[in-house]
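Hi,

I'm pasting everything inline rather than attaching a file, because the server keeps stripping attachments. The sequence lines come first, and each chain or strand is labelled.
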Amino acid sequence: MKAVWRWGALALSLVLVLGVTSGLAQQVKNPDTYIEAVIGDLETLDPAWHYDTASATAIFNIYETLVFYDGEAIDKFVPMLAESWTVSPDGSTYTFKIRKGVKFHQGGDLTPEDVAYSFQRALLQDRSGGPIHMIIEHVLDVASIDELAKKVGDAQACQQVLNAIRVTGPDTVEIKLASPFGPFLQILAGSWTSIIDKEWAIARGDWDGKCDNWRKWWDPKAEDSKLFDVANGTGPYKLVKWDKGKELILERNDAYWGGLAKRPAIIKNYIRKVVPEWGTRLAMFEAGDADSIDVPRPFVAAMEPLVKAGKARMHGPLPGSVMQSAFINFKVKEGSAYMPKLGGADKPDLLLDLNLRRALNYCFDTATYIKESWLGEAKPINGVIIEGRLGYNPEQKGYEFSLAKCEEELKAAWGGKLWSDGMRLVLTFNQGNIARRFAAEMLERNLEEMNKKRAGRPIFSVDVLDLPWPTYLKAMDAGELAVFWVGWLEDYAHPHNWVHPYMFRTGSFAIGQNFDALKDVEFKPVYATFLEAKKYPTLQDLFDDLVVKAKKEPDQKKGGRAEKIYFELNRLAVEYAINIQNIQLQVRRYEQVWVKGWFYNPAYPGTYVYWLSKG
Amino acid sequence: MLAYIIRRLLLLPFLLLGVTIFVFAIFSLLSPEMRASLYLTDVPKSPDAMQRIIHKYGLDQPIYIQYWQWLNQIIRGDLGWSKTAQRPVFEALLYYLPATVELSLWAMLPVILVGIWLGILSAVHQDKLIDHTMRVFALVGWSLPTFVFGLLMLMYFYAKLQWFPPGQISDWVTREVINGTFIRYTQMYTIDALLNGRLDVFWDSLRHLIMPVITLSYVQWALLLRVTRSSMLETLRQEYVMTARAKGLKESVVINKHAARNAMIPVATMGGLLLIGLLNGVVITETIFNYPGIGRWAADAAIRLDILSVVGFTLFNGVLLVVGNLVVDLLYAFIDPRVRLE
Amino acid sequence: MPTWLRHPLFWIYLVLGGLFVFIVFVARYELGLAEEPLFLVSTILVFGVVTAILTAAYRVRKLLRNRLSLIGIIIVLFFSAIAIAAPWLAPPENPREPYRIVRCGYTHMPQPPNGENPLEQIWKVITKQATICEARPFGLIQSYDIYYGIVWGTSMAFFVGLVITGLNVLIGLVIGSIGAYFGRWIDEILMRITDVFLAFPFLVAAITMAAVLQPSLGRGLLTAMIALIFFGWMGYARLIRGDILAIKERDYVYAAQALGVPHHRILMRHIIPNAIYPTLVVGSMDIGSYVLSFAALSFLGLGAEVGFADWGQMISFARDWIPRLSDHWYIVVYPGMAILLFVLGWNLIGDAFRDILDPRLKGAR
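And the predicted assembly:
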């Protein structure tokens, strides 16, 4: 027995000593270092390869683009590596005057050749699933460089790239678009067009700048990119170490050319730590070990006591650039495991019926959903363009929640057959997404409520199914899902980036919705009266026509013709009920009270450390 | 003896071949689109992205061709690329291993010392209060889910008291490593700290290790306690112990010099089981404490369907288990002269 | 009076049988639970457990004399009672899906229990004075009622633990006995296959298997259980093999072989019945640990589907709120206690069994 107490006392005293020596935490921890605790790691440091916000955060701080967002604005730009620029009268040629006296971190001078090389390399690399399709779409008018090469041959395709982007003078670079695209600068301000050092890249074994065998560097795996885990930019921070899966460490570039505020950055070190467990991140924040942390939406409530106690600062709710929608598939692929049924028989095009699609909208209680699941921090959007972008129409009416109207529409659906014979519908979303689960379960409950409105056995059967991400992606891509919830994060702040995924033939979501199934569609303009009324073979053709017309329209100002076309697209999206109530999500940011200088620009991914200071 | 070792080691390649075929067979249950999702973190934003990715990574080929290609790679000494770890698989193993080894070594220490000690104590005081207390204590540890225990620890000792942080090491040490003022010889911070003669780093590393070590070892105690207890009980009834007692030796001498030493023989065979237990334990423990070890990596890779990482981890594991069991067998033969290996 | 009428076990079996028939009938005709096969299966399993435990306690009196194992028996019987009485303790909202936890609202936030005394609220639910959502005896997590989840999760824990253990023992039995009886190359091949399976650490293997099966089978009970069965049988195979190797050399086996009795008959009639007990005992002791493994899978998001009454999943809901546990203690304390007690109950019984059966300890007590 004695032995127990002896050992126990020793253990206890050890714990006490540990506690006392480590419990002395100071107030502002690490005054010259900014530490962020985040959910996930970056994919790569290659600007042309990355398409995730985590990599974008790192690249934004290390590399720079020709133009940059002006403060909090998303449609005004200030010169960055381009001193100035001009646009040709027809809107298709951009000429940039490149800044002089800028040095890369490893000593090279910034030249127009570097700029042209950066763009050409990005276009020729064009990795699958990467961001470059955005630029290729406007510069070469194809979906991918591979598509062009298959049409005109490898050498010719490369030559076209070199012709479209070229050095035209001692300090100028010219970019020629296939057709005018007003918001092209939006894309140029994105981190994917960051400028890299040509000599450095070639020395590292990247594309040699020649057209002979560019295919060698085409579509590399992340790890095969020669710039995968190295970086040499012109930005306010330089790469110290990327310890993959653990942390990214940046250090202030003391030889910085000055940037927007004509000074080097204030914070000396920036550390981005990967901490997947939310509880751990919160604990780090509370201990002052992290200056800001990723707070998943459901857990903002955990931060509230800290804000109230003055131990954390909250920015927000701020208008986000993400919209969550349920997409309705007009004709599910044959043989799908999620086949809708009408009266017990398979009915792939069950949702082709407008009344049914409207019923789904009427049955969704948006107000309650936003209030409970999003704590009121989301905005219903009628149409497909979020608030704050050109083409958002506050006047656009949507579907108010009403079980009576839902019942009415259900009775009218399929000429009354639906009400008499019943249906089966599978609502799907990706596993682990709690907010989407709530949306689906709410719709399920309200639709099954309709069973009580009629006598007899329940005949409206709605299933909620969460699919693992791999299954979900595959089924969505193949058009197998009847109703599916997804969110879209915009790439650049322009309505084209909304109507394209939601409505265009090859758009990310439209591809799984089969608008083709709806034939003979009459179009009568309401807003864009300059367009002629006409009949389209399918709904998809109508959407495609309007999306392209709006994109090519030179008048991209507020009140201009493009905006009118976007109004039409919003109206059509609502009238044809292609989604179930879109909602624009709002965001919050939490930081330590000693952090200064942060402001919100929805186009920045993550933290731009240049503006920040501590103390 | 030598023949026995050689025979056991000769079996290793066949075992590994079987294990890898098995992993590939399991993964063949997935369609190419599903496996492509590893490379897609968001919905594909360009129309042809999915098909291009499938083609690029050769996911549309039959699984036996993929396996054959992988075998060819292996022969060239290339285990492939771990998407989860963002580095080559072999490098990933070497990268994550030291941290886990360090954690396991530190966990082994209390498990073995405390487990054996409590087991002996329990046996000596059989059916007394202390015996019951120990057994209940062990049974509760055996019944308490690791994740609940770990999360409660984290909540109390980090969030509330701020004593022990999660992770592997503090930032200031990381900075010293980058600056070159702290050299990592073994990649294990506690040992490196001693080699560098830096007690402050040692201390910091220890603070990070305490919670995962306790979480990891609590469950294992029960196992060891039980085996030690029953082995000790058996030994205490042996004639030579009786004789020693009859000679009038002090009870502590009887227990420590005579009984405990012989009771340890069956306990030594527990080594293999302990190893397996630790390998299972690190998965959850490392996930909760954000400790960058091999268990967290393997679980991550499995969930993300990263086949090359899973195969790599499995290979490592197969080697470890075969070699580990062999060592335990040899150890057993060494301690207990009655055992003969053939 | 015939002797079997005086035997207490007879009366125990009679009462249990009557109760079982009563419950099945009420569930079928009164509550409409008949469309849920899972409920019927787990009720049968729970009754099996109760019968087995009572029989064992009667036969091996030591189990009742030992204080620890007595506590274990009481705990398991208590949980059995909860599992059987679930339809009355927590009336399902939709009788066709009793295992779907009742949802009260659409918010992620934990909601505290209603009132000071949870027993009072539970009583209100049982006596139908209040619905589950009104009573909220243990509070809500992700808008799911914790009390409902725990009550229905009990029969799920029995189901998971018993089915996984049962199938693992069965597979181990088949492979081990075939290998041991036929020996030579069959044994060699089967044991090498066993080695291959043993080369995976159990949890990582189960995680991999569950992750791979999920895309095709979906997230759910089936996926996680297959994963745990796939990699769980090896220990039993080795155990039974060893025991059969010993029994194989007995005279009566040689005699049977000499008489020309077919192999399968020798195996089924003479060898397995004599070799099976250690394996069964070890298996019954592992029930608790399988429940824990299943909970670990659930915790990592690979277990039962979301909203399904499963303790591990309820704890995984709580995972994100742990740093705020002082405010939301109920979300981890209730499910955590349930799982701890359940596993502890089995382990207490198993521990006592182990001591009783360990030949080296005979006479020590």
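Chain A touches chain B through 69 residues (CB under 8 Å).

If the labels don't parse on your end, tell me and I'll reformat.
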